[in-house]
## 1
Amino acid sequence: MSYQPRGTGEFATAFGSLASYVKGDIELINDDPKNYAFSNVFAVAASSAPYEKVVVAKNRQYVIEALRAEGTSEWFAASHDEFAIVMDGRVEIELVKLDFPATIVPPDVEGSVMLEGPPVGRNMGFLRLRRGHQALLPPRAAYRFRATAGIGVIVLQTILGRHSVQKWSAICPS
Amino acid sequence: MVGDMPQLSEVDVAASAPNEAGYRCFSLGSFTFSRDEYFAHVEWVSKGTKLSHTMSADVFLRALMRDVAWGFFYGTVNFDDVFGTRNRYGRVEFFAGCYHPTYKSQGLDHLETFDSGLAMQTCKAILHDWTNTGYDPFAAPMETGLTWIGKKLGHNTAAINRARDACRRMPGLPGDLPLRTDRNRYPVNRAFLDVPQDEPEIHAAPGFEGEVHAFNLFAYLSRSDVTWNPSVSSVCKHSLFCPTTEEYILPVKHANDRIEWFLQLSDQIEWHIEDGETGLPRANITMRPGDVAAMPADIRHQGFARKRAMLLVWENADPELPRLHEQGAVPRTPAEEFWPAPRPPKK
């Protein structure tokens, strides 16, 4: 973990990365560690397949997913806003406004949906993100990620969907 | 108007003349609140007996500041082990000893429910009167003065009237919350001078300028001028990302009425976890960058950060959740949901 002083001022801010992270811990006094579903997004991404949407937090239907950004992802879309935060690496996001969104992401379908092929629609543009940058993934727009400098880590604010992967016993102490 | 508190109505807020230290005494129902040079005193009547509780005035003011800023927040805001508030969304409970095993077992716990508007008016009046010039209850101790100590000395209206930064969708979008810059009086905090301030590259095709959007969340947080006061930086239906910067001690012990989650973005925070009803210790959690942990719906938590840290608090703002939790219709902990107990075999 980057706890070594990096800044030139009085304080050095410590961020994590795939190459340098140290998980925290739980001291149990009278409890079960499963109550906290404790994990680490870098540890999860380190052992994930590229762009596997691993759920690291869930509150009813809402989730936070940790994605290992490696190479180029499939195309995804959602019927609602999603937000991506780059926790490590550099990521480019392409956006396409779908011509027929209801055929892919009808309003009653929540979570990210993987497209079966390239999106049909208008080019919206693209974003280039680094660590700490947050992007809007607007509704009814197809998007795909591309890691542009090695392997990165993305945190996604979304809703549980058909491609979300829950493997709590594998990522949390028990 | 109440004395020198022009925005408050004397019809609503019950306040005395200044005491010998210069501070007013306030009452709300049977609760009375007074302060002197060092301490805040809360008094109430239980079983016909007048009871009192004393806290350091700065501890009380920092807790009250969060209660006001959060609109009584989600669930229970324990100022300490004895006194606090519980949000009933439109109504609010003020309690003493209700979540303390000894007060409870002796029948000395006390709870009154108020209209949230009246209670908020009273809390704001106390903050206004008891916060001296030079003291900022939102700031870390290294950033503010010791003028909370001593006799009354002016006010700090600007500090206690900060609006909470809550976006509708995402900061920087047209019509939404502006990004923080030097120009709009959000300088980079002294503890985050090394945080890169570069903004993402946005290449929007013509016609999509308002829809293709990104910003530097870490830079945004590095410019936060408050501690332990979550903003809202993205909204997905009821899912709210509420990042915040934390330094020193969370001034309250928060017992949420729903599960919430923490994602540590930078540095380190230690959390003391206690049982939500009794205050008995359950666990200590150390969170480092990238760590994710749930805060179950049956605990109270208090955080400690020796260096200003970025924390992403994740809330589900579904207004049905408190009712569902009270009915036992939803899991109180991730353990109940993700590792359900096996059902006994059918005979």
## 2
Amino acid sequence: MTDVMKVDDLQAITEQVWQSFLDPEGSDPLLLSLLEPSGGDVAAAISVTGAWRGHVVIGCSTAASRHAASALLGVPSDEVTEDDISDALGELANVIGGNVKALLPEPCALSLPYVVATAGVRWPAVHEICRLDGMWRDEPIHITVLESTSDYQGAAAS
Amino acid sequence: MKILIADDSRVMRQIVTRTLRQAGFDGHDLVEAADGQEAYDAAVAEKPDFILSDWNMPEMTGVEVLRALRAGGVQIPFGFVTSEATQEMRDAAAAAGALFLITKPFTAETFREILDPILG
């Protein structure tokens, strides 16, 4: 089902999120790269269940997660807390995931977002159908759409 | 005017607050709720003039809050700010009595267009 989501769609959604929330002045755009950046220290994800099953994941460096919380809350980077960072990344996953879901077959349901502060997170039984890599304020960001390859019908499916 | 902002994300409540200001809606008394139950309780206790609510929240979803308020005879104007907006959700929101559904990400311009008839 690689047709459900194209990288252009993911790019359009991501650019909209950056323009609205993370870079409204247009001074710090997300610079997309063909090279996969290293440094996925933190990840936030939201799961989709139903007619399509999988995850939308945003991963980034610790510094990028701090920049994101700072930009979203409108406070200096050195004032954001760990809770702020989790909340900010979770909300980014929620907004991107909600817009991705609009392109997926219906009916689908979104989970609440969850955040993992661990390098090298692995998602079991999935394959990647779409990926964006980039640099934001000199820090790596990557956004992936992972489709579940298992037959398990999640409890949250409806 | 007293406005209740309901969203389980503090970051998003902050963004909604900032966007209201950027859209020119300054000087309103803002009250916040961090989940659906808090939103319902605050709507009853604080009697806001207007409610801006997320859809997916712990305890009660936004549309459950709206339905519960209407079932209890509370007719406060109510609009959604949500990251997803299927036709089914738009239909459910309208049937429950919501005035509008704004999708995230949004801009100050969107807020201005949609909220001006209510807050302007």
## 3
Amino acid sequence: MADKLAMLIDTSKCMACRGCQVACKQWNDLEGWTYSKTANEGSYENPPDLSPQTWTRIKFIEHEGTDQFRWLFLNEGCFHCTQAACVDVCPTKALKYHPLGLVTFERELCNGCGYCTQACPFNIPRLDKSGFTWQWKASKCTFCQDRTTNGLQPACVKTCPAGALSWGDREEMINKGRERVEALKTERGFLNANLYGEKELGGLGRLYVLTERPSIYGLPEQPNYPISITLWQKIIQPVGGIAVIGTVVAAFFAFLISRSNIRMEEVE
Amino acid sequence: MSVRIKGTEAVVHIRWIPKYTFMERVLHWAHSAAYIPLAVTGFMLYAPWLTPLAQGQAGQTIRLVHRIMAIAFCAIPIIYAVSEPRRLIMNLREVFQFDKDDILWLKAAIPYYLLGREIEMPPQPRFNTGERLNAVIMVLGFGLFGVTGLTMWFGKGIVPPWLFRTAVIVHDLTMIVTLCMFVIHFFLAVAHPLMWQAMVSMRFGVVSESYARKHHSKWFYGEKRARELWEKHKAEGIH
């Protein structure tokens, strides 16, 4: 099996044509309008947010740098973390790690508990609340797991006309990203250019070449695996299970001991 | 109640003392009927080895059952407060009262319940230390389950994620503590040979005079007399 795969997103090349949004919806058969209506709200970006039907979208940032106003475009979507909080909290195993470095999602297994939406440091998974409260389903970008596990590129990469998106071996993508950052710094004068995702959360599957600091794009400078999830999954769950089962076993033996020591004839 | 002993002329008179009202007994069993399915369905999301039951449509169904039972669970204290507010206040006052006898009780409890050694058991009021601990934990459990459960049910996307995750953790911890308490309560109330009148009192609302005298002497005799008797018994070594 090949090494880990990754997507490299060169934001400096993105022209916000939103072909990736369309390709994503087409390949993954996502409806266009159920959740976030295609509305402009004081911005050219559309739809206004990720949703169960919008797994990727271009975020428009109006950046006023030192010299002039500039648009920054960020292709949003799942980061496919190596240490993914959503996978660890998922009680159904609908979210899983794939050896190729994807965080895959099986909609049939999801029971709509929504823990993943509250665990992700990037606020990526969204809950489809269109049914009654118990019929919900989570949803997120899967890097087109059906395509990529069969040697194809994700639909968004395939369609990108600007060459902003590329897909391949993670090491290659990192090298390509580093070269691009260097070029942006020396040849184009973007002194804050950086590669995002190389080390964060064990290494992200979605790598960004950014021309400004991550915070300007609304990305966390230091994304953290929530400590409460470590406490919950690694400590409380096993300790609690042992405590409950231990009490049951102890009560059973206490019952046997008490029965052999206490004669009912003498009990009032 | 008088019982004629078979084949003889001897008649045993049993005096029954009321301990619980009808509403208390109904709500007690309603509480069990809600708590057990809540614990079972909750455990399916909690325990990794029960994952297959939490997946897909089965998982959606158990989440639905959990919510329906949660409504019943939360309704119980409200029904009690509305129907018998004076009893509720009286009982709450009694169960939140602990003194130094309770430390002696906890020390004496294991030899007593396992080996039947009664001599060290200090006199107890209407609820003994174990009953009161159980009640306190269940009362706190109602509050914590209610607040964290509502946060998880309705607060998703409204409260900040750290608060949601904290609610999950508190919900889990409350489950662990109440479930351990539930197991102990089940053992003592249902299975334990000395406590056979626990089931009688939760079915008919009464305990016998001899049982009350033995297990709840502060309630039966009053505080002062119960202590005198206990000192005397200990001095004489009578079981």
## 4
Amino acid sequence: MRAYKIIVMVALLLAASSLLAFILLRADDGAVVHWTNLSPVYWVNKNTTNSTTQACMADPVVTVQDAFSAWNHAAPLTISVNYGGTTSITDFCGMSLDDTGCDSTNVILFSKQWEGGSFPAGALAVTVTNYSTADGVIYGVDMVFNDAIKWSDDPYNNANDLCKGSSVYSLAAVVTHESGHFYGLDHSFVAYVGENFDPSIAATMFPVYFGNTVWLDMASLEQDDKAGVYYLYPGAPDPGWGRIKGTVKDQTGKGFFGVHVQAIRKSDAVPVLGVLSESDGSYLLYGLTPDDYYAYAESPYIAGEFFTSWISTYYQNADSVPYVQLYSKIQINNYAQLAAGSTVFSRATPITVAAGATVAGIDFSYTIQPHLSPPTTSLGNNHGDDGGNGGCGCVLNPGLPLVKPDIDLASISALLLLSGLSLRSIRRKKAAA
Amino acid sequence: MRRIFWAFLFLVLAASAALATVMVPLSLKELTDDADAVVLGHCTGRRVFQSGGMIYTEYTIQVYDSLKGAPAKEMKVVQPGGEYGGKGIYVSGVARFSLLEEVMLFLGKDKQGARDIVGWSQGKFRIYYDEQSKKKFAAQEFGGAGFIKKSSGETTEAKPEKMELEMLKAAVKDIVAAKKAGRK
């Protein structure tokens, strides 16, 4: 039993600085990955060997430009990502094992190659971001689209049968999502209305390609996307968006980190913004247009379903939150209760957000359920892939000293051994006394 | 019963066929067929290194069961990206591991002592114990963008699914056996 406790203690020590954040890319030490060069330039190599893409895309450059233009104009921003022109560069970060493409030239291109071999199985596109670990400053982003994939301007309503269907994909939808990563955004979680998945309201940074019927929705930015990029590069004039902030804590006052908190519009119960709680349990819903909202905190455990790291590298850290809680103190056992027209809203407390104002004190408190899983210990260096970095839950506490050992079994064993020796020594001293 | 099992498995995999970065879903058969090894184990170590301009993260997996390929007690798994020497590289779509995390992995061929993961995060299933059912389940890792499609290619609901580990293992073994027997 003691050994178990020690293991848990060691695990907690190692996990103590593991945390998540907003919907921003973060370095291992929690630093926000962002541009300080506020006029970064990208270059496009539009050469493709895919005959379908050649036939089905009028000009990939225009598609890429449209995507960046949408982000540049999502809100008043200090950053403007600019098109530099076409390029014949074929090298990118990840192309070969002796990489020379990991540089400050931002290249967007088509390729069938990865690390000297074929493209990763199943991958449509990969974005590679180079940044400084000292401060999270980005100095280069490459975006590569699998040239073995058939890309189309319109994979759904195209007059040419060759250019539509389930084996053809929208470059516009994918490049808009990938461009969000270019600015420094991670994956968003806004996509569900109650228990139902709704592509029409899903953030562009939600990590799912929904299918060709809704590619236009996927290529258009939602308020969650706009708020994220504005948070990174706020410019003038102030758009007058409001904020909701509060905490997610257990009954002892300990903060939960990695809990997804969402704001849903009162008028139609549509989710508008989502964030993840910080290490101390605090959260900030940033970028709300003036309106009335409800807020709720989510659990990965509900109705027997296991949401965990499927959607986020951070989400698994909130495994101890046992149920969805609608503000204030309303337990939700089924996501269907969060749909428009549900009677549960009659018991909820609406939050009025005025232009530029912050509504504070929207707090959630949980009673810990002992049967639920403890937070997962992380190895560090786990940041979202394609913005999500696949499920390790390990962005460390912003502001805390970076503890980034190359953890291995030997070091854990040493820690356990030392702990065991110390306990034994204490017991002996007590016995001697 | 067998037909029901496969129908269930198909539905589970189809529904959960989302994946990391922007990817095309790989079926369990594709994952298994593409893999040189399919193993179950725990992640016990991590090492970050640089090769050329790229940074890689190598994970050590202590293997306790092998469903395909030569049995081994330990395997090294490499994924691109990580932080090293003041530089960070963030690659969309790769798998990450937690310390002591239990996983099922679909691995590529051994290259200089380490293996890639088939489909990156698609080829990683996190194994967890469900206290309520007292059973182990496996959940595919979908750290990034993915596709949720019906067979027609249209949109369906993107809801993560869980799968009993023993059921998943049996399905992989069946695929391996069928391949050996020369069946499609």
